[in-house]
Amino acid sequence: MDTDRKADDLSELLPDRPLTPEQKERLNQALAEMVPIEERRRLELLLLVRMKQHKGELEKMLKIMNDHWTYEDHFYRFYHCSFKVYSAQNTTEQAVKLLRHLLPERGLNKMFEQIVREGTGKEFQFEHNQQWEHHTRPMLEAFSHAKFMVEMAVRYADLPAPPQPMPSGWAAFLYLYDLR
Questions:
Q1: Does residue 23 sit in the same domain as residue 58?
Q2: What's the distance, CA 6 to chain centroid?
Q3: What is the mean pLDDT of the segment spanning 28-46?
Q4: How many CB atoms lie within 10 A of CB 32?
């Protein structure tokens, strides 16, 4: 597919009802961000090479994220309504930094970035106790998404080549870099 196409050029693929301006903008943005197949293959291979190069760091991060005092304790602190759940943000930020380092040529997926943005950079304030879930649940969501991506990087780092057909975890990991 030609990546320079606009939403107006795709009328044969669109629903019978016209798109809203917001839908049209989102479609145009998605089309503009599409990566040509040859470039996508190159970046996927590069990502796989870097996963191998950084496998030790990835394994170390996954070990930290799976540790009792990280994984289990963060969730316990959430349900216990303890301010100590705020420390989950540090681990999330470290994991995201490592994930960015794997393929700095590409930004991270916008949905992932939003989840991370909503779940990091927060400081405990006593008033947060009044809306505990609102303030703290995004921290665990961001942690969980980052942990999943690190786990997929470790799981698939030893692939000899990008797999076809694609396992779901590999496909999800590629979405992190918008390569799917």
A1: no
A2: 27
A3: 85
A4: 11
Angle at 102 between CA 95 and CA 61, to 5 degrees: 30
| Per-residue pLDDT at 14 exceeds 90 | no
- Measured in whole angstroms, the distance separating CA 17 from the mean position of its chain's CA atoms is 33
Q: What is the pLDDT of residue 6?
A: 55
- 165 plus 83 within the same structural domain: yes
* CA–CA gap between residue 176 and residue 104 (Å, rounded): 12
* Whole-number Cα distances in Å, 91 to 62, 106, 135: 10, 22, 17
Check whether residue 17 and residue 51 sit in a common domain: no
3-state secondary structure of 154: helix
119: tokens are 């779940």
Structure token pair of residue 67: 């540790």
